[in-house]
Amino acid sequence: MDIAERAAFDVVSPVDGRVYARRLYAGSREIEAALARAEAAAKGWARTPIAERIAVIARFGEEMARRAPALAEAVAWQMGRPLWQADETARLKLVGDLTAEAAVALADEEFAADPGIRRFTRYVALGVTLSICAWNYPVAMLGYLVSGPLVAGNVVLFKHSPQTPLIGDIAAEAFAAAGAPPGVFQALDMTHPDAERVIGSGRLRSVHFIGSVPGGRRVHTAAAGTFTHVHLELGGKDPAYIRPDADLDKAIPLLIEGSYSNAGQSCCSVERIYVHEAIAPRFIEAFAAQAAEVTIDHPIDARPYIGPVVSARAAQTIRTHIGDAVARGARRVLAPGRSPTSLPGEAYVEPEMLVGTDHTMTVMREETFGPVVAIQTVRDDAEAIRLMNDSDYGLSASVWTADSDTGLKLLDEIEAGTVYLNRCDHADLYLPWGGLKNSGLGRVNGREGLRQASDIKAFHVRTEFA
Hints:
Number of strands: 20
Largest sheet: 7 strands, mixed
CATH class of the largest domain: Alpha Beta
Shape: globular
Structural class: alpha/beta
């Protein structure tokens, strides 16, 4: 396929609804050449001492930091986050630094053995990895999708979301400046069908995907029968439970941030809050007062707390969830009309707070992925846990209480990959990250993430004959 035959796609900015960039998807020859380069580079990179691989990742983090202004501008225009919040390079670099520290997890492990025998295991590289990135944290997530697999000795083909493709270009430029050997990291814009064909080709050893549940299912289906390692970090419908003894003065500001930051466009955003009936009126009043202070405005020209959501289509989905809840008896607490009337485009969604919700409503069942909080009153701990677990998702969940012992017991009962006590919306860089149920498969991050980006080889060595 030559350039004239390659499909084009537009990046429509949610900021003003205009085309921010026009791109060409990679053609079949370009994809084949990238796969061939990756395959040619794989063994050499796997044999590269881990200290040298770590050094490349460290330099990559530094090169990305040098490009922070361009990256922040690309983030703001492509997905709508306010420019003053759009620099993710510090997070990216920190992921790389902590991945380097976690590399001790890849050390050989010795086992007891008979005389003249040595037993040990060694983590080895998988090979060619396809990493597919979502748009909502388009720079920071490179740490999970790229830094970890590269430190583990794999080579990476990188496909960014078609909403944020310019990040992939800048990353490729930064890797070249960091001295990464040719073929070790390559960014490609691929159509979904082409990506599925690559996954189904059997030429990959692993796929790392961050994105939606439907996208994860397509990746999983495409890999069927290839014995490719599949890692999926998908959606969430993350709940919080507020017990009667919770410190509301400390809890509510954290819950506001966990619910509305990045316009609620985080897999671990708090979307459902269950409040014990003993404190529900007080909690709702205090939460509403702080939620009313969440500002929305133009993300480039102003300095709001949130800008638009990623697209007009996403905004319509969010409004549909709100409308369904209201039609079924929920009440909108925050007064409408708080955003400037002159905002361009159709992707601006005012922060919302719904009360009187229940599990018949879409807003309590499906991922909303927007600046919307749904609050339901519960009678006791048992009802709260039952409702928290009554979900197809299981990424993260939180319990808020002054009683740590009881809180820990409740966390044990929650079906989620990460659970918090008196905290929320936080991907701890020291701990493995991933979900249960429809929230994903496998783990990234930390020591466990590095191990899952590797294969393990057993050595049984006779050092002498009896």
